[in-house]
Design a protein that fits this description.
Strand order of the largest sheet: 9-8-7-10-11-14-13-12
Strand content: 15-25%
Helix content: 40-55%
Distance between the termini: 83 Å
Number of strands: 15
Number of helices: 17
Largest sheet: 8 strands, mixed
Length: 423
Amino acid sequence: MATKRKQYDVADLGLAGVGESRIAWADAQMPVLRQIRARFEDERPLEGVPVACCLHVTAETANLARTLAAGGAAVALCASNPLSTQDDVAAALVDRHGTAVFAIQGEDAETYYAHIDAVCDRHPRVTMDDGADLISVLHDTRSEQLGEIGGGTENTTTGVIRVRALEAQGKLAFPVLAVDDAATKHLVDNRYGTGQSTLDGILRATNALIAGRRVVVIGYGACGQGVAERAKGAGARVIVCEVNPLLALEAALDGYDVMPAVEAAAAGDLFVTVTGNRDVLTKEHFDVMKDGAILANAGHFDVEIDKTSLDRLTKERRPVRPHVEEHVLKDGRRLFLLADGRVVNLAAAEGNPASVMDISFANQALAAEHIVLHVAELEPRVHDVPPSVDEEIARLKLEALGLSIDELTEAQRAYLNSWELGT
């Protein structure tokens, strides 16, 4: 006799009422996604399409799931990070919206991957990723399903790096739209959203005064730029560490001190890694840090801070606040690790504001529609989000903000497409 497929796995359906209120609050701040949802309800562009989502299970994500369902999709959702799930939102999605959700805040690694398998069991034709774990599992242990998938989307810098690595090895089996590279997403989500929410997570965890502290931001991509800008606005003296000379030059011209991480390690009071790479802070950095230094990671995976090396240096560890663990080193110095080295803006706070995720998830919804409409034309490689999608999202967001802009005249259009006129 066949085993009955599990329909959901959440912490407590009794939390659904609270979760529904959070979803409604976020929805009120997501006007672009609401407009897309209204169109989807009329046009049903995703009718009958199974969509598997491996995303942070938050109130904002719930409104993306609602939008996909309004378009006719059969949505299955699991978490893209063990600590980012909002259990009340997960309950509301199951109980009030009939979504197949597999996510529990604080789930262990075994459960985390079992939940990814659960959404794969729905045999998706479209995937949505935040970190590429779903794509990775499909290419590794579920490769027999690859031929069923028309395409996927990836919402993070880390995930796009992983998918491009698959492509470079000739192993990427279906087209993936790099939502993270969309201009609207990269600007608003990465810079303004991550910048604010990272500082929010650090403050909620520590209640520390930022003004006057030496804040070391390691990585000066769009997310790092946002973190540095917000820390500076809070009164921090910001140091930037980079491996890319162009980004390092940009940081210097933006007014920040720039130096190697091992030099910054001796000077810093608060460290934020945001590189998408591993072993960014290691033993050589811990060895010279001040007593009381705070360590936070804003990258997607918990590999940026070398926790194994930190544990080897530690003689005693204990939680001192929610999401703050004190490591007493063998020489007596104390280092404070936030959120177990996981993405601090989601593990210790609520992630990016709803008005920011409005743009990111508008990209996700329209990218899914693009995949379904153009599946026969898309090659199995990483694709940019079509510029028309970016422009439409920006236009809708400006309208929601009550802003209008100029338009080119016919003469200006002709001039920009000519070569004859000069001095």
